[in-house]
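Standup notes
- HV: blocked on the assembly model, inputs below
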Amino acid sequence: MPRTLINVPQSVPRGTVFEIKTLVSHPMETGFRPDESGRLRPRDIIHTFVCTYNGEEVFRAELFPAIAANPFLSFTAVATESGELAFHWTDDHGAIHTETARITVT
Amino acid sequence: MRRLALALALVVLPAEADDRRSGFDVMGPDTQAMQQDDTANPGILWVRDGEALWTRADGGKSCAACHGAVESMRGAAARYPVFDGAPLSLEQRINRCRTTHQGATPLAYESQELLALTAVVAHQSRGLPITPDADPHLGAVRAEGERLFRQRQGQLDLACSQCHDDNAGKRLAGNLIPQGHPTGYPVYRLEWQGMGSLQRRLRNCQGAVRAEPYAYGSAELVALEAYLMARAGGMPLETPAVRP
């Protein structure tokens, strides 16, 4: 179960651009590194990140093996309505980790 | 009157020329910003893990069962290593607690669980000055640590002091040589892409001068820790620090 750190402003004036910062714990194993016995460690990365704002996708990122462990993503959105931001990280095992944050638009 | 004099001394002391610099002061502004923002500092992930471990019953008893809330550990990490029968690092104290009071198995050095527990304990002292323990037994330990710090070792025949005292602030290839104050351990090191203890850092340096690293938990590493913490006495603790 990955641990996450999410930074979203609690309230934002309508129509303004606000910043969202997310950090997720993940080894981001590249698939290119050998283990002690010389065999390659299987690739294990988060390959897709999606952020939805009241159900509508506002940001999507594809991640690749060159991204460091515990990927940190910072992006922006425009404040339209109060509601929920949902964050989805999908890894190589197909597991999707979801976190949510409330935002109030004034 | 004496109290006033003491208070004045405390106020005046920092005004003396203290040219000690934490690794924080000499790293880039991006890394500094990363450390200072608790939602961007990856070390906080280990602190959160540690908070969960603090209340988890291991061997029938949790840390919280004796100590209460983890906030009660405020100031503890700023004193370590201490002397309790033998010199004891914070990691060793946690493992001694586990074996003698919790009836649990000791955690391996550099295991995610031990790093998380040391991180959450040390995090309680963030911002507090490092206050080396006054136990007289520690004098000899620190002296041994200082001797090791100044002893040349490895195929490169270099002592810690030759880089971190004599040439701190200059560059070793592209990297700035810090003064080597252990102000933020365990640290999240970008090069490691993970958390590491002070002993990992020391062993890392030993490998770099092509010396055989001391074993984790060895008397040599604890003595070095004790000397370095005394050398950094008064500097604020930053755990979890981020370092390049």
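- HV (later): unblocked. Residues 90-102 of chain B form the longest helix (13 residues). The CA atoms of residues 214 and 221 of chain B lie 7 Å apart.
- Next: hand off to the docking folks.
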